[in-house]
Amino acid sequence: MSNPTRTPTTHKDNTPWWRIPHVVFIPVLLLCGVVATSTMVVISTMDQDPVLDKEVYERERRAALALDGQAKIDALMASQPAMQGRNHAASPVVPLEK
After folding, report:
1. Handedness of CA 82, 83, 86, 88 (dihedral sign)
2. Closest CA to 80 of 92, 89, 67, 70
């Protein structure tokens, strides 16, 4: 079945590495990854959300608690932390801390 007279030959070609498509694919793929990562970093740092100051939040909350009626409810709804505001967006009553 096998042919003993046939031996594998080494193919010596003087083709430079940049002309072989499979070899060029690896650096191009890595370069695409670097460009994509750099683009994501630029997009994410361009429009950052500001860091909230806890003292300002507490001051606004105390001022909202000093109000009466609908103004108090509106002020408390506006000063809620994001997670609490999302969890209670449909509820008409603002939970008060005691």
Report:
1. negative
2. 89
Structure tokens at 44: 């994410």
Give the number of domains in the chain: 1
Give the highest mean pLDDT range of 6-10, 66-70, 76-80, 89-93.
Answer: 66-70
Domain residue limits at 64: 54-81
Residue 69 lies in a domain: yes
At position 53, the amino acid (one-letter code) is: D
Write down the pTM of the prediction. 0.43
Is 58 within the bounds of a domain?
yes
| pLDDT one-digit tens code per residue, 19-69 | 888 889 999 999 999 999 999 999 988 887 777 788 988 888 888 888 888
Give Cα 71 distance to the centre of its chain: 36
For the chain, count helices (H), then strands (E). Answer: 4, 0
